[in-house]
């Protein structure tokens, strides 16, 4: 059996069952464990499969982002730890971008708390000089910062997510020299970040293009999910800030691409 035919057969087996162990695939295809591993790796790089503990499964497709209210209740502990790690990267006077999402909301609140505490004790840096965002909830939280100037992108309103999107929002990003961009995700895989609409695509691409450094900051539950539009390649990020449940396949991909891994406990 030639490799392409074997991979089609492997994919068909997983599609029939929804998921499969490496051992079962090895037996069904009559090839070595290493051959199956190589085939799985190729198919995962193409976005056709996702590695899970003990085997593989199909990517989970998302048609729409969850609402802001729904996201607030999802994995709050992981988001707090990711936000804390991201906050450590922010230097005094930096121009930073906080993308839409509840992980970014947690980050905005941590930056405010840190600045208020430093001001109270009259110690250390106060944090960013400017905070740019397309998220209305993030903007409101960042507005409590005692020294940072907050800028909100215009454009089309995504009312479910309390954020702006579209070409007008993307065009406004050209006006800023962003030192550090923190990018959120509802879905990413070995190829990179995907989004459910082209209105979100243009904003994601523009913020990465206009930032000196860009970090994907998201919990590991978003890995292996795929939306309709490819937005940003994995290798375009300087780093990935996530939790320790990130699968080994994604870690290997990051290392191969030179993407720094910042894993929280």
Automatic annotation (TrEMBL):
SMART domains: DeoRC (SM01134), HTH_DEOR (SM00420). It comes from the Bacteria. PROSITE patterns: HTH_DEOR_1, HTH_DEOR_2. Residues 3-58 form the HTH deoR-type domain. Pfam families: DeoRC, HTH_DeoR. The keyword Transcription applies. The keyword Transcription applies. Keywords: DNA-binding, Transcription, Transcription regulation. InterPro entries: Carb_Metab_HTH_regulators, DeoR-like_C, DeoR_HTH, NagB/RpiA_transferase-like, Tscrpt_reg_HTH_DeoR_CS, WH-like_DNA-bd_sf, WH_DNA-bd_sf. GO terms for molecular function: DNA binding; DNA-binding transcription factor activity. This is DeoR/GlpR family transcriptional regulator of sugar metabolism.
